[in-house]
Amino acid sequence: MEVNISEQGKWERIVEVTVPYEEMIPKFDEAYLKYKKSIQLEGFRKGKVPVDLIKKVFGVKIEKEVAENSVSDYLQEAAEQKEVKLYDISKLESLDYDRTNGLQFKAVIKIQPEVEVEKYQNLEVENEIYQVSDDDIKEIIENLREQNATMINIDGEAQRGHYIVADVQKLDTSGLPLVGQKYENRYFQLGGEEADEVFVEQLLGVRSGDTRKITLPVSNPDPDSENETHEFYAITVKEVKEKKLPEIDDELAKDVGNYENLEQLKEVIRQDLEKQAAENTKQNLSNRVMDEVIKSNPIELPDYMIENFLDAFIKNVKEENNKKIDEQELRERYRTDAIWNLKWIMIKDKISELENIEVDEKEVNGYIEDMAKKTGKNAALVRTKYRDTKKREQLRHKIQERKVVDFILDHAKVTDKIVTYRDRQKAQELIV
């Protein structure tokens, strides 16, 4: 096979290929045997027509069909011969076949960038180890109190932090009710992070049975206008309520999970948090390793690779969700993630190649069995799920990724850093 490749822009190559007739004979013979099973000619039963007769009657047609269908195979072989990574075929510019000259074709292909991964050993990575504290447990306990709180009616005036149940009637500028704009049994908290302070201030002090008219400012749609508009409402209070939190005691422990006492509840919470912290620490370290490798080995990606990745992502989202989605919004939101994932996949595969990191069937089966054992009664479902070729391949890539990350970590300079509850709180304050 003769191959000539020339550049056409940064990410395209023109590939010209000539495959001699003799090299194609094995493909033709395979096709003749296939057609022999279905071809019928007068005087012969189905499947009994001699191959020599099939060649004589249908030879040219069959060979041309085989030649045309073999273009992608020969194109891949040509790319490998010239050490070019074929990504996709842009167009087939010409194709000719005859028994004298064989198969000749010319195609324009898109290529995948060549990845040069040099910095993946001796990387410096910080490992944040989260240390579970009494403050973490206290936070969980407070959440449990909130979940088990009760609402009690009060006879007095509504104060900040109280809740009211009320009917809301929208009014016109003269104070008359607007037809069709009454909303019954609405629930409001007088305060809180998301509360409208103007609304809250006008309702402080109301009692059950009171009706109070309030005025709320409305943003003017015209940014150049200095006139402030308002909306008017009559709020008829039906109930004033106060949230009653349970005491932090043995009774709370029994209510939330049938624990013997508060100390047992706290111990279970600590164990769960420590397990979560260990899992998060492991995952966060993996993410830092991948980030560091990507930063240390810059890769330029052609747009068509990014767009194809996003196409596959959106297709998957559509298959998992029946509701309508905004494709353009998804493309914009996940474009950065797509680039990161593409770079990591290419780097991971290159490191696997350089370090001979492979995943065999025994490892895949072992991983499936471990998952099956952990699911207990659903073990059979897990095994059935991974009989699917696509699912097994996804699992293979996951195992390979874990092995590559472990290899990098084994050859990295990892520094542990203890992170406390207070550190987390400070970080969240900085984000806000």
Descriptive report:
- It is built from 13 helices and eleven strands.
- The chain has helices spanning 21-36, 51-69, 71-81, 134-147, 197-203, 250-257, 262-296, 303-320, 327-354, 361-375, 379-385, 389-410, 421-431, and strands at residues 2-7, 12-19, 86-98, 102-111, 124-130, 150-153, 163-171, 177-189, 211-218, 229-244, 413-419.
- The longest helix is centred in the middle third of the chain and has 35 residues, at 262-296.
Radius of gyration: 35 Å
Tell me what portion of residues adopts beta-strand conformation. Answer: 15-25%
CATH class of the largest domain: Mainly Alpha
Helix share bin:
40-55%
Count of the domains: 3
In angstroms, what separates the terminal alpha carbons? 63 Å
- The CATH homologous superfamily of the largest domain corresponds to Trigger factor, C-terminal domain
Number of helices: 13
N-to-C SSE string, H for helix and E for strand = EEHHHEEEHEEEHEEHHHHHHHEH
Identify low-pLDDT runs: none
Task: Describe this protein with a few key phrases.
single chain; 432 residues; alpha+beta; Alpha-Beta Plaits; Trigger factor, domain 2; 3 domains; five-stranded antiparallel sheet; four-stranded antiparallel sheet; 11 strands; 23% strand; elongated
What is the topology?
Blueprint: E1 2-7, E2 12-19, H1 21-36, H2 51-69, H3 71-81, E3 86-98, E4 102-111, E5 124-130, H4 134-147, E6 150-153, E7 163-171, E8 177-189, H5 197-203, E9 211-218, E10 229-244, H6 250-257, H7 262-296, H8 303-320, H9 327-354, H10 361-375, H11 379-385, H12 389-410, E11 413-419, H13 421-431
Parallel strand pairs: 5-11
Antiparallel strand pairs: 1-2, 2-4, 3-4, 6-10, 7-8, 7-10, 9-10
Helix pairs in contact: 1-2, 4-7, 6-7, 7-9, 8-9, 10-11
